[in-house]
């Protein structure tokens, strides 16, 4: 679409126009609905809270909103690829580059990560008997940083400047010489800001798990989801700073004429190293929490303790450690030489060992258990074969010689969708159904949940299994067109059908949430699933500071054994201090400041950089003189004087 | 819960959290050190030994490194609850930090005015990003000290002490990074 504005010719693709029109039409309707239903107090309550359950819920809500956005991107991709030589809407050429970049980046950073961090927020403190995360205010900051980064990235499309160099942003393609314009600046700042939020979330999680556990809850008695969260957080601590610096260097290349990754002096491969030193641990950052969720769910719905608890923990740690030694398996075709390729091939294959240990332990946990097939358990059951298939193709890809054939084909696309959807997305859904009562006090509908599961799982395999075959037949990834002679039409056609089944399954989620909250029902009790871990000890939804009296833990699954023996858990009167919560709009201030600064950098407007940067620094001053601990510490000093 | 141990528990949380944060920073600096080592010296453009000046490096180091020592005065004051010692320690540290920033700015200014900018070659790019990130840490620390001096009047003592101690960790960390910069960035091309 072309038109003149103030004498300048403006060219807008019609999808951007459609997006603007729907936002302009949709916003008043949503605002009217929120006002009419009197939802504003609830929104305000959540937006200014530092409570872990509320922040976790916010993470999940926005992750699901981004999930729909990136999911629609995926459907557009599938529509463009449904037949050979297809011309669907505007999604050819650079538009196609934009859409697969947005799909990938968004799904990884703004869907998978916040879904898991959200579930950690909701469940981990309750599972270990902590009244909140160690730093409630920092937790709110972390959430707002994620949201700010996500919104900046989200906005790119509306200004017709969506990033277009792939979610890996390989140099030199991502440098200014090859992709000028603001597009990939959005990528840099969206990821930089949300990445900082992720680092804060990890710090918070580690301190909470190491210092705020209930009395007697030794690390060796801790459920596996907190264990997975702990190890994941350590991975984040190493991986995300490397990404931050990689993005910083790319920013210098793009904005200030440095040549780290381009030109005679630069090394494009250095970007690949930095990116994958972050990127491969990132894969385990996505997978490990899902493993933890599945371990808890499989144990709870089999009415048995986790089989091989110690080996489960060791396997988590081993996967985490090996995760740092495999990054160059993404770069087998770069030409690092036979020694490097062999080394990274072997370390990669080694990861199959601890992962195999986990798979067998899950199976043995179910063996002779009293299995109840509820929706969370269904997702766990669907996960095991799906993930194993992804793992097997992973070992295939790990052999460097064979990878020369697989590299950059749909075989790889199929592989990483099998592992990431198989673990992270199924895990997040399982966790969502499992902890939904703890978040809201309501149970999601079982029947609709099963519809969701079956449609999603069948749709998933229909979408991605044929992609293995398309890839083996030579179909390259990130290409918007193919011919009849290529012989991959059938695979792509089936794939598109599957994608729409997955899309349809998500409608059941919306319906389910609507149905669950439509009639005003009583809240379910503390323990709707007959659970084993400590989160089922506190009321649903979990109140703020739920552990007034700390339960004393003397073994694994102490709550379960207390229920079996018909005795209440013993409680401790005096326990360590709880974190101090506060109602605050300060994170929102930081969010606005960073948004202004980022747009200044994205479009190269110096005045905006200065205003936004000064405001961001000013936030620290604001915070320095508005510390919620002031009153608490003053009271303590007065008490001590008496 | 007895409120008497509250500040101790919460300070313990915060200290652990901040140490982890410093570890994150250390990973960031480690990545930049690696970048510097990979790209220096560059095949084209100025060589580091042509640019670095012994005098500036030595002077700025003297001030920054001894500022870690003068901060100990403030730490002593914290232990003894001696307001004068805290004030003296912080002020001297601030002045030393500011003097470091003067030499650092001088060096950057000199390079840029001679036409050696971030875009000149990869040695200078990585030099400016690495040393610039360190300098911005020092600058942030200077601002933090001003805030601390004001907080001294406003906050309950235990909270002020907590914030002061967190700042001390930060400042010593920034100093350690400078030592590494001396060893990795300057030393190979000055001696």
From TrEMBL, chain A:
Catalytic activity: 4 Fe(II)-[cytochrome c] + O2 + 8 H(+)(in) = 4 Fe(III)-[cytochrome c] + 2 H2O + 4 H(+)(out)
Subcellular location: Cell membrane
Single GO MF descriptor: metal ion binding
Domain of life: Bacteria
Gene Ontology annotations of biological process type: electron transport coupled proton transport; oxidative phosphorylation; respiratory electron transport chain
NCBIfam families reported for this sequence: CtaD_CoxA (TIGR02891)
Function: Cytochrome c oxidase is the component of the respiratory chain that catalyzes the reduction of oxygen to water. Subunits 1-3 form the functional core of the enzyme complex. CO I is the catalytic subunit of the enzyme. Electrons originating in cytochrome c are transferred via the copper A center of subunit 2 and heme A of subunit 1 to the bimetallic center formed by heme A3 and copper B.
The protein's name: Cytochrome c oxidase subunit 1
Organism name: Thalassobacillus cyri
Automatic annotation (TrEMBL), chain B:
Domain Heme-copper oxidase subunit III family profile: 1-190
Membrane topology: Multi-pass membrane protein
Signal peptide: none
GO MF entries: cytochrome-c oxidase activity
Protein origin, superkingdom: Bacteria
Compartment(s) where it occurs, according to its Swiss-Prot or TrEMBL record: Cell membrane
Chief localization: membrane
An annotated GO BP: aerobic electron transport chain
TM spans (from-to): 20-39, 51-73, 85-103, 123-149, 169-189
One GO term describing the cellular component: plasma membrane
Pfam family, one: COX3
Keyword flag Transmembrane helix: yes
Classification via PANTHER family: CYTOCHROME BO(3) UBIQUINOL OXIDASE SUBUNIT 3, CYTOCHROME C OXIDASE SUBUNIT III
Family as reported in the entry's similarity comment: Belongs to the cytochrome c oxidase subunit 3 family.
Protein's recorded name: Cytochrome c oxidase subunit 3/cytochrome o ubiquinol oxidase subunit 3/cytochrome aa3-600 menaquinol oxidase subunit 3
Organism for this UniProt entry: Thalassobacillus cyri
